[in-house]
Automatic annotation (TrEMBL):
This is Glycine--tRNA ligase beta subunit. One of its GO terms (biological process) is glycyl-tRNA aminoacylation. Tetramer of two alpha and two beta subunits. It is an enzyme of class 6 (ligase). PANTHER family: GLYCINE--TRNA LIGASE, CHLOROPLASTIC_MITOCHONDRIAL 2, GLYCYL-TRNA SYNTHETASE. The gene is glyS. Keywords: Aminoacyl-tRNA synthetase, ATP-binding, Cytoplasm, Ligase, Nucleotide-binding, Protein biosynthesis. It comes from the Bacteria. Signal peptide: none annotated.
């Protein structure tokens, strides 16, 4: 016999951004609990609205299955005395709930132990389910609340609790709320409702104006919006993130459209969309040419009664915001970019580091160095330096002060209005990219250099100020910025050795008196390690084998693109027949060199005693001349080609010769070759077995 079970947690309104994650977490934890308790079921359906999280479980077993278990106790030597069972054995029997006479002796690997054979009768489902408040209490949320005099914490105060096994209430209590069968309808259109049985949940709530199934509710919103669009001849972008948010704001959706004054269309498109989407949760509409129209679509949490009043209210709120936007847009255009840049001298980047103006001075140094390194032309370098000298100016504009989401976007708009070149304007916008994990990268070289320079300065200065990410704590998003640097550099295929670049940055800033308040030079190795960790994450996301990732990032190279390329090359080579033999030969060299670190004596060919030494020396000479001059694939092949030469060398040459001059000469050769190998990858990390 199987059952249906309903669990509903009634709450004060949840923030829209936690609804879906919360019901998913509840479902996962309840599933894990039931599996741990061996209570089987065939189906689980999730329900969520701003006021409730619910699960409906079908095919739930009547009880746990009985179980027979054998528990190992102390050894017989400890368990028995001359007078019978020892205290250890008696204690073991008591802990297992059996009589001492029921203990048995069995041998395990030649040693006798005491065992307890237990028959456990399965508990009924209602007993297992009554412990679900412990599962609910274990849920985690971004922010937690206490209410009343309780110490209990949850995402929002709990208002009611429903727990039904078929038609019967499952006894349980959460805080001071006893589970029952009474749920709540829509806050304004519905009323309290007693559920007769668990199966009635979804249909019963629809009678009191609640669509509890989030997917059904979302589909209704989509259908309503598209029906309006078809009727009016509009195009609507159903932004997935906005749709998810709106869906989690309503229990009974009714879509409608409103309008705003056409003269607001003179404001930049991005401002209008931000006002509608980010601030009012409206969907914007376009014509067939993708031009914005003076209309919007919104969703009400209710029915169509008095809908005209709702429309007018939303129109008034949007109009007020757009009047502000139009005012800011006009006011900002009364000032020059130079005026805004001067204001940045009074804006703090961070009080322990510098002003925002001083940050731009440092970024000008970094962009100049990177621009030359990656081969920008003189006109490109000139535009890059212009962009770097003004790129933060929009932070002090009225528009960005009101709409912070538009930083960079308004910088581009205002730069074009004031006669800056398209390349400079685009770079101002692109320096924020990528602004989310896996987001779009800068499309222009100038924008890419500016983006890398800005992020590099932030990481270097925050590390110098001892504000380093730890655990989940990363208030300045330095991990995201580091990931952005890695993605951009790899996309652009730039050769950019970090150790050389960062040291040159610090020295140049000091020479130009642009240094921040904090000391940057000591943290350069830490910053490089931090960026290597982001390279590891980047490579793991591409499914490169973990040991190959570790080998590439543990190399002595600090070139981002080179490390990623070497990991990819090792991944490509790993299944080839000679890969294992190649890596073993190279690893033999690096292992010997690592045990004798510091053997950098000049190699004297006059001390060579066999042809194998001569051959290896010549091969390493050739390798030094050609290595890293062509491609990573070529580098690997050159190293692989050394395998027979290395093997012949070890076959015919005793490294640890009794003659100290011979020994030093041979160790120097090993170190010379190991340095080249380790520049490609730390091959000792590679698993070949």
């Amino acid at each position: 016999m199987t059952h249906d079970f309903l669990l509903e947690i009634g709450l004060e309104e949840l923030p829209a951004n936690v609804v879906t994650a919360s019901v998913d977490q509840l479902a996962q934890k309840v599933t894990n609990y039931l599996k741990a308790e061996r209570l089987t079921f065939t189906g689980l359906k999730k329900f969520s609205t701003p006021r409730r999280l619910a699960l409906q479980i079908s095919g739930l077993a009547d009880r746990q299955p009985d179980s027979d278990t054998e528990v190992k106790g102390p050894s017989e030597k400890i368990a028995r005395t001359d007078n019978g069972w020892s205290k250890a054995a008696l204690g073991f029997a008591h802990s297992q709930g059996i009589q001492p006479d029921d203990l048995v002796i069995k041998e395990v690997k030649g040693v006798a132990y005491v065992f307890a054979n237990k028959h456990v009768t399965g508990q009924p489902a209602v007993t297992i389910l009554s412990q679900l408040p412990n599962v609910i209490a274990s849920l985690n949320f971004p922010t937690m609340m206490r209410w009343g005099t309780h110490q209990f914490q949850f995402v929002r105060p709990i208002k009611w609790l429903v727990a039904l096994l078929d038609t019967e209430i499952v006894p349980m209590q959460l805080v001071d709320i006893q589970a029952g069968r009474t749920t709540q309808g829509h806050r304004f259109l519905g009323h309290p409702l007693e559920l007769k049985q668990a199966q009635d949940y979804q249909a019963a709530l629809e009678e009191v104006f609640v669509l509890a199934d989030a997917q059904q509710r979302k589909q209704r919103i989509k259908d309503q919006i598209m029906a309006i669009a078809r009727e009016q001849g509009w195009q609507v972008n159903l932004d997935a993130q906005l749709l998810e948010e709106v869906n989690n704001l309503v229990e009974w959706p009714t879509s409608f459209y409103g309008q705003f004054d056409q003269h607001f269309l003179t404001i930049p498109r991005e401002v209008l969309i931000t006002s509608m989407r980010n601030h009012q949760r409206f969907f914007y509409v376009e014509d067939e040419k993708n031009q914005l129209l003076p209309y919007f679509i919104s969703v009400r949490n209710g029915n169509r009664d008095h809908l005209e009043n709702v429309i007018q209210g939303n129109e008034k709120v949007l109009a007020a915001r757009l009047y502000d936007a139009a005012f800011f847009y006009e006011e900002d255009q009364k000032h020059s970019i130079a005026d805004f840049v001067t204001k940045l001298k009074e804006v703090s980047f961070h009080d322990q580091i510098s002003t925002m103006y001083e940050k731009m001075e440092r970024v000008q140094v970094i962009t100049a160095l990177i621009g030359k390194q990656v081969g920008l032309s003189q006109p490109e370098l000139a535009e890059l330096q212009r962009a770097a000298s003004i790129y933060k100016f929009d932070l002090v504009t009225e528009m960005v002060g009101e709409f912070s989401e538009l930083q960079g976007i308004m910088g581009e708009k205002y730069a074009l209005l004031q006669g800056e070149s398209p390349a400079v304007a685009t770079a101002i916008r692109e320096h924020y990219l990528p602004n989310v994990a896996g987001g779009a990268l800068p499309a222009t070289k100038i924008g890419a250099v500016l983006a890398v320079a800005d992020k590099l300065d932030s990481i270097l200065t925050f590390f110098a100020a001892k504000m380093v990410p730890s655990g989940s704590n990363d208030p300045y998003a330095l991990r995201r910025q580091a990931a952005g640097i890695v993605s951009i550099v790899y996309q652009q295929h730039w050769q950019l050795p970090l150790d050389v670049l960062l040291n040159e940055v610090v020295q140049t800033e000091a020479r130009k008196q642009f240094s921040p308040k904090v000391e940057q030079a000591p943290v350069i190795p830490q910053v490089i390690s931090f960026l290597k960790e982001r390279i590891k994450r980047f490579l793991k996301d591409t499914e490169v084998r973990y040991d190959l990732v570790n080998a590439a990032t543990a190399s002595t190279s600090t070139d981002i693109c080179f490390m990623i390329s070497s990991a990819n090359e090792l991944q490509k080579q790993q299944n080839k027949a000679d890969f294992k033999a190649n890596i073993e030969a190279l690893s033999r060299v690096t292992r010997i060199a690592s045990k004798q670190a510091g053997s950098f004596a000049t190699i004297d060919p006059l001390l060579f005693e066999n042809e194998a030494e001569v051959a290896l020396h010549g091969a390493v000479d050739q390798l030094q001349n050609d290595f890293s001059q062509k491609s990573v694939a070529s580098d690997y092949q050159q190293l692989a080609n050394l395998r027979p030469v290395i093997n012949d060398y070890f076959e015919k040459t005793m490294i640890m010769a009794e003659n100290q001059n011979l020994k030093a000469n041979r160790l120097a050769e090993m170190n010379r070759l190991a340095r080249i190998i380790n520049e490609f990858a730390s091959v000792d990390h590679i698993m070949t077995k």
